[in-house]
Amino acid sequence: MSATTHQRVDVDGLEVFYREAGPADAPVLLLLHGFPSSSHMFRDLIPKLADKYRVIAPDLPGFGQSAMPSRTAFRYTFEQLAQVIGRFTEVVGLKRFAIYVFDYGSPVGLRLATRFPERITAIVSQNGNAYVEGLSEGWSPIQKYWREPTQEHREGIRQLLAPETTQWQYTHGVPDPTRVSPDGYTLDNHYLAREGADEIQLDLFLDYATNVAMYPEFQAYFRKHQPPLLAAWGRNDPFFLPAGAEAFKRDNKNAQVRFFDTGHFALETHADEIATVMREFLEGAVR
C-alpha cells in the first residue's frame, strides 16, 4: 500500500497543497472537496483506493493548506477555482483522470469536464449536485442573497459560517452521531476562523448562483458524452436531496445511483462502503 504524501506546487504564482498516494503509472483519480472542508475529508478514502489508483486530492484556493490570497488579489468565484484546478492538473502532469466531486467540488469538476471532456475517464459524484431538483429548502436564504445581493442579506447568511453550523453539517442526518469524528469539523472551523476567510466564503455563497445557471450546460455534457458516472449519495443530506442523484439517470444512460443512510459528509461514516462501490464502478469504467 502506497503511503500518502503531502505536497505543495506553484500554480501560476498560487501555492496549491495536495495529498497523493498510489502508483505513479496507475489510472488517476482526482478528489475535489467541498465547503467548508479540505482534502482532509478524504483521509479515510485515499488509502482504500491507492493500491490500484494514483489518487490526488488538492485543497481549493482559500481552503485548507492552499494559499488564501486576499479578495483584492484573487477573485473568489467558482470560475476562478476551476481555472486554478485545471492548471493544477496540467502542472502535476495529469492528462486523463476520473473525478470524485463533492459539494463545491462538483461545479469545479464539472466545469473542467465540460471544457475538457477528453480528459475525464469517469465521474463519482458524492452529494455533488447538478440539478435544480436536488436543491433543498435549506438553500432559501442563499437564494434570497442571489436575488438581492444586499449587505443585509449577506449578513443574514453569516450564521452558516458559525462553528455550530459546521458541526451540524457533519452530524445532521447521521443515525449514530458518535460515528462522526470531531476532527473534521474542528479543523474546518480552524480554517474558517482565519482573518478574512468569512468574507471569502460569503463571496462564494453569492457566486454559487453561477453554478446553478450552468446546470443545463452540465446536463448537456452528460447527454453528449455519457461519461461513466456513479452517484454515491448520503440520502439524509439537508442541502442536496436524493432527487438530485436520481436526476443523473435522466441524461446519462451510464449513470449508477447508490444511497447510504447518512448525511452530507458521507465519508465520515461510510468511507468503507463508498470505497467498495467505487472500486467496483471504477474497475469497469476506468480499466
What does this structure look like?
This protein is an alpha/beta fold and 287 residues long. The protein has a single domain (5-285), classed as Rossmann fold (3-Layer(aba) Sandwich). The protein contains twelve helices and eight strands. Strands 1-2-4-3-5-6-7-8 form an eight-stranded mixed beta sheet, with helices on both faces. The radius of gyration is 17 Å and the shape is globular. The two termini are 19 Å apart. The model has no long low-confidence stretch (mean pLDDT 97).
The CATH architecture can be named as 3-Layer(aba) Sandwich
Helix count, per DSSP?
12
- Give the overall shape: globular
What Rg is obtained from the alpha carbons, in whole angstroms? Answer: 17 Å
Keywords:
single chain; 287 residues; alpha/beta; Rossmann fold; 8-stranded mixed sheet
Topology record:
Blueprint: E1 5-11, E2 14-21, E3 28-32, H1 46-49, E4 54-58, H2 78-91, E5 97-101, H3 105-115, E6 120-125, H4 140-147, H5 151-156, H6 163-171, H7 182-192, H8 197-213, H9 215-225, E7 229-234, H10 242-246, H11 248-251, E8 255-260, H12 267-285
Concise overview:
The chain is an alpha/beta fold and 287 residues long.
